[in-house]
Amino acid sequence: MSNAIDQTRRMLSLVTYLRERPGARVGEVARAFGVTEQELVADLNVLPMCGTSFRGGDLLDIDTDGERIWWHNADDVAQPLRLAADEATALLVAARAVAALPGLRERDRQALTRAVAKIEFAAGESAQGSARVGVTFEAEGHVFADVDRALSERRRLWLRYYSYGRGGMTEREVDPIRLVTEGHTYLEAWCRVSEGRRMFRLDRVADIRVLDTPADPPPLEVRDLSDGLVHPDADDPEVVLEVGPAGRWVTEYYTHDEAVELPDGGLRITLRTPEPAGLRRLALRLGRDGRIAAPADLAAQARAAALEALAAYGADGSVQGTAGS
Amino acid sequence: MAIAKAERLMNLALCLMNTRRPLSKRELRDSIEAYREASASGSEDAFNRMFERDKDDLRELGLVIDIDESALDGEAGYVARRDRNRLPEIALDAEEAAALSLAARVWQQARLAGAASGALQKLRAAGVPFEEAADREHTALEPRILAREAAFEPLLAAARDRRPVAFDYRKAGAVDPEQRTVEPWALECWHGHWYVAGWDRDRKDVRVFRLSRITGRVRARAGRFTAEVPDHVDVRETVARFAGEGATAAARIRLRRGAAFPLRAKALSVEPVDADWDELEVPHGHGLGAWLAEFGADVVVLGPDDLRADVVDRLRAVAGLAPAGPAAGTADAPAAGTADAPAPGTARGASAPETAPQGAQR
Question: Which of A232, A187, A192 is nearest to A208 (CA)?
Answer without folding.
Answer: A187
